[in-house]
Amino acid sequence: MTPFLQAVSTGNFRIMQEFISKGADVKVVDNIGNNCLHLAVRKEEFHTEDESLTVLDKYYKKLQLSKEGKLSSLAVACYLADNGANFYHRNVWNVMPLDLINDTNLKERIKALFPPPLCLLCKSSEATVTFQPCEHTVTCKDCCSENEPKNCPKCQQVIVDKRGFGSLKLKEIHIQKVANKLGSKWRDVGENLGIGSFHLNKIKFEHSNNSTKQSLKMLRKWSATCAPEEFTFTTLREALLKAECLDVLEYQPQTE
Q1: Separation between Cα atoms, residue 235 and residue 90, nearest integer Å
Q2: What is the pLDDT of residues 46-72, one digit of tens each?
Q3: Does 81 share its domain with 137?
Q4: What is the pLDDT of residues 115-163, one digit of tens each?
Q5: Do 152 and 177 reside in the same domain of the chain?
Q6: Residue span of the structural domain in which 194 resides
Q7: Which residues contact 225 (CB under 8 A, 6 or more apart)?
Q8: Is this structure's pTM higher than 0.85?
Q9: Helices and strands (H, E) in the chain, number of each type
């Protein structure tokens, strides 16, 4: 994680501002593709030594937020977006910063302030495909499928992989790592994946007081009973989001 992302992650607004003023790359991502907005919107608040700070006032007004003596993470996120960060950037889980905002009204206000980018090829559909390693989100799924670009249309860098275009299939190593982080939320995730109460109760009884084994058994049950095309990161991501397991979404899937 870069020093700039570290400042955002720790909620230090003053240090974050200093990095931006010195030309820090606000589009940089961490090892799982999170940009600064993924980190910012998850903070409850930011802190600063400058009590007379007014640079965020316009965002409080536009988002209809009350200051209450604290620095709102969403106001800070809007400040970052005005400095070049992208609310529509997708990490390795295909999650955008906007996906992490639970308040629907605030999410819509942010979308009005920062509309989604349009596809550079068709100029009409929303750009949803993120290219790697350049991390540019510049084409829609249809144009990406039809044109099969070898180079990013924006920077011409060779495309190694894409996010937001398809969904990676899960492997045993993936569900083992997810199981290690689910904890007591395993049952909520299981319900979101469509596993019935009978099977969940059986898993709880057979592996009482061991949430990791319960999680792993639940995920293997899902693997054995779901349609093959549903056993993907996308399906699991939706179940995790619904269960508010945001910390598990920080896990980096390994595709090899």
Answers
A1: 16
A2: 887 765 578 888 999 999 988 765 678
A3: no
A4: 988 999 999 998 888 888 888 888 988 898 888 889 999 999 998 877 7
A5: no
A6: 172-248
A7: 195
A8: no
A9: 12, 5
